[in-house]
Task: structure prediction
Amino acid sequence: MTASPNLQDAPARLLSLDFFRGATVAAMILVNNPGDWGNIYAPLEHANWNGCTPTDLIFPFFLFIVGVSIAYAMGSKKTDPATHQKTIGKAVKRALTLFALGLFLSLFPKVFTDPIGAFQHVRIPGVLQRIAIVFLISSVIFLKNSEKNIFRIMIILLAGYWAIMTFVPVPGVGYANLEKETNLGAWIDRGILTEAHLWKSSKTWDPEGLLSTIPAIATGLFGVLVGVYLKRKDLDAPTKIAWLFSAGCFAVVLGLVWDLQFPINKQLWTSSFVLYTGGLATVILALSYWIIDIQQYNRFTKPFVVYGVNAITVFFLSGLIPRILQMIKLDQPDGSKINLQSWLYSGFTASFSPINASLAWAVTFILFWLVILWVMYNKKIIIKV
Result:
């Protein structure tokens, strides 16, 4: 990681993109840090299987934003093949860093108390790991292909994944299916990663598994195409907004239609899920672009922008801090011990109903990071991963 001492040294940023990224990361922290996992409002939970809640939108929105950012960050290098090797080298380095940070979160804190056991049972897939893979592959595809080819690749990935999941028989099962433990993706994850390295809550399948990374890459490419279109200089802003809004709505409808045969499912990252969430992300970004960058109504954006410019940093640290709090033990009057997080949370449970206490803890956590990120932003500190 490196810290940029001056925001003005960085290339010009699309404020609406930072706003959208920041809002997405703040939402990610909100749903990842309830005070009590047993008391959560329904919209802040993932769908049990098929379907889509507001929480299910967060991760695909972030991968979509990664794609848009690629178009902006690498656009000037795309036209110069001589720079491609160096640009890809930087992308590989960044992807490896993101993947390593994700593995560290999976290993921490056990890696310091039982390193052998930690590596024997570390979950290899994960959110940062998927971001790393999508970023790297989307970057290479963007640099080496025209917009038409990128679109074709996206369609091939979506159609290919649909065909694989719905027509290829699952060994040991005998037929193609989309159930939690018997779908082809779960079978591949168990065979390659083994149950020791999968999501601890299931151990038989993983929501960030290997096969479902294919359509996740399509989500990144969806964002790349939107970013390329936003950067076009031969179109005025109203035309861009109109076409993006229309394309987004069309993708949502297409996703809903495909849902009838290939259900919208975040855990499987189905092709219908890609179109549905990509369409919604396009509509939201187009609306944000019009309001914030074109109409210049941006006074309300700073709390989200401070999250957006240090998105990976706050996501990583917000996952680390709760584990550190749980490591710190405090003595109780009765001689027992309680971890620091539980002790702090007890103040919320004394003041609210269980479900509101859980929400209040998550909101407080967001505000805690907002203060830190606000100071970093004012001091022009951006930590680049």
